[in-house]
Description:
The protein contains two helices and 16 strands. It is mainly β and 210 residues long. The protein has one domain (5-208). Strand 15 (188-204) and strand 16 form a beta hairpin.
Amino acid sequence: MADQWMIKGVEYGNCNCDYGCPCQFTAPTTHGKCEAIVCGRIDEGHFNDTTLEGLKWAMVVAWPGEIAEGNGRQQVIIDDSADAAQREALKTILHGGSTAPGGTHFFVYNSTMSEVLETLYAPVDVEIDIAARKASLNVSGVVQSTGVPIINPHSGDEHLAEIHLPNGFEYTVAHIGSGTTKATGAIQLDLSDSYGQFNELHMNQDGVIR
């Protein structure tokens, strides 16, 4: 029998594009290349009979050009509280395994990689508040990121914006903010006040659950 899995939780991402991220509209990246972190917390989930509830994870990715052109580098980080079965299950999902082709962003990302670095198991501190457009990620010695609301420079108020993708392979609705990231591990990134994304993550082996 094919693997059956489901995850439901929250996700935060920060890439080097301007607010809005052209990739969300199938347009070329802002700077001609993509550099990003993505992280999340699983509130409900399983991989076959293995529970994934409560697990936290992060991913650092970089492409020298457009994502579709490939030649990317990827490293997944899984919280070291996961036991052996959970580590293997979540590693499979985050690398796009046991997934319908093109069904999730994890599958799409992995399909464009020239180098998939060894998965790290370390304490992953993730806090995500979608409605508030706030998030933090800390993996000591590897990556730190902070997500905050976009502030309207004219009024000083928080700027509220959403992206709705009814057929998206990552989310249906994402709340947009600002992110700042410093990655100092095998893949190094230095992002400041660029595209921040806050969304529910709900999917299974066939894709996003709506």
